[in-house]
Amino acid sequence: RKPNKAPLPSPPAIPFAGHIHLVKKPFHAVLARLTERHGPLFSLRLGTFNAVVVSSPALAKECFTEMDVTFANRPRLPSWKFLSEDYSMIATSSYNPHWRNLRRVAAVQLLSTHRVSCMSGVISGEVHAMVRRLNRSATESPRIRLKQRLFELSLSVLMETIANTKATRSEATAADTDMSVEAQEFRTVMDNINPLVGLANLWELLPIVRWFDVSGIKNKLLASVTRRDAFLQRLIDAERRKVEDGGSEDGKKSMISVMFGLQKKEPNVYTDKMIRGLITSLFSAGTDTILATTEWAMSLLLNHPTALKKAHAQIDQVVGTSRLVSSEDLSRLTYLQCIISETLRLYPAAPLLLPHQTYVDCKIGGHTIPSGTMLICNAYAIHRDPNVWEDPLEFKPDRFEDGKAEGLFMIPFGMGRRKCPGEAMALRTMGLVLGALIQCFEWDRVDDAKVDMKEYGEEFVVFRAIPFEALCKPRASMYDVLERL
Ligand code: HEM
């Protein structure tokens, strides 16, 4: 590519403050609007961070293929110091041998496709439990909220696969909250942390806000971290006791016991700190992302009843009505997969991925980018690029049918070295839960109005601004299956 001597486009800045006036939630939407004005590559000064924002398939490919290593670092966001034991956890660590080791354990030992297949029975078990409780609630009162139920589901899938907690975990109640004691505890921790961190918070960006810290953000973060760590330490201790008592057979091993096995062989590499850090990262990265995507999918389906009917019909044809959707069915439920892809296109749970950073001077689009610059990749804008997608704002799962979208660029899980290692687990869980929700229940809007699709961006995940609410009726043809759950 030819060098580009022209300065990088940049919105008007305020002396000293840079572009702080542009920092608003949801930040991906602000950046998408700036892209319309300044093009797919522009720079921002966000307090102490110099950033470039990339919003086109070509530039994203350039950053995450040719320049993958160059951009494999993470910026040092102040909140990550407290949340991730001084930047030592997988999602926040710099690109170095320590990160490579964490990544190998996560991708190969804990979350590989093979491991996810081994965990399928456990994931299905949690989906069945959710459907059983939903059936009970819907029979009593058809008006259903899904957010807490989906959080309970994603947390219990992680608790079960990470720490085999079935025997000790409390039962979620059938009431509308449908949250176990553990889910309520972890939700509180996440709700306390989420609004305080991420790129759209002045505390992250401006040292002066941190020095005075009038809202006491640092102390709030530290208090939440103490609570989070106590929750996770209890899981680790309980699993250690079980392993000492003999543990489970290979295929059914929890992630913690897999790591204890590694620790036995190489105690200096697989330290307690490393195990605790990995567990923390998986819980933080895996719960809200699965919850948000499934909630978006259900909202889109309620606004597009034809797609919902088509998914129903395929599930009835492939699975029938005498049993629930299973992992083995997922590859044949092609339309369900199209729905999940189209949801991830329109509402990627982490619309700006996680921020990257270059550790050397480099070039993007021919422009020189100095070492230490933060890279923000706007997957949300890329997924809605009219040059790539026909009717980009429309929900059209059919566009993915029969490989029609092959070659069209989307990166809901990121790309390159720092790509999400939880993709296989997320897709398996979302396929099973969405498949079961469609198979077992009739869904309808609570009134004639379409489901409001307003977004609410916190931390790095974008949720529905108004929690999903719908009328839910068990399908008569599934009564027998639901009774047996
Ligand atoms: C719909 C569900 C999910 C979505 C959309 C998603 C998306 C992402 C994205 C965009 C990133 C950042 C990639 C980058 O920096 O370029 C990421 C990182 C990560 N995700 Fe996920 N994720 C999901 C579920 C999960 C699950 C279930 C787990 C594990 C249980 C997980 C674990 C991680 C970890 C550990 C990282 C950090 C990787 C690193 O920095 O090396 N994610 N995810």
Automatic annotation (TrEMBL):
Pfam families the record matches: p450
GO molecular function: heme binding; iron ion binding; monooxygenase activity; oxidoreductase activity, acting on paired donors, with incorporation or reduction of molecular oxygen
Domain of life: Eukaryota
Binding site for heme: 420
Record keywords: Heme, Iron, Membrane, Metal-binding, Monooxygenase, Oxidoreductase, Signal, Transmembrane, Transmembrane helix
Gene3D superfamilies: Cytochrome P450
InterPro entries associated with the record: Cyt_P450 (IPR001128), Cyt_P450_CS (IPR017972), Cyt_P450_E_grp-I (IPR002401), Cyt_P450_sf (IPR036396), Plant_Cytochrome_P450_Monoox (IPR050651)
Keyword Endoplasmic reticulum among record annotations: no
This protein's record includes keyword Metal-binding: yes
Cofactor(s) listed in the protein's UniProt record: heme
Recorded family membership: Belongs to the cytochrome P450 family.
Protein name in UniProt: CYP81A20-3
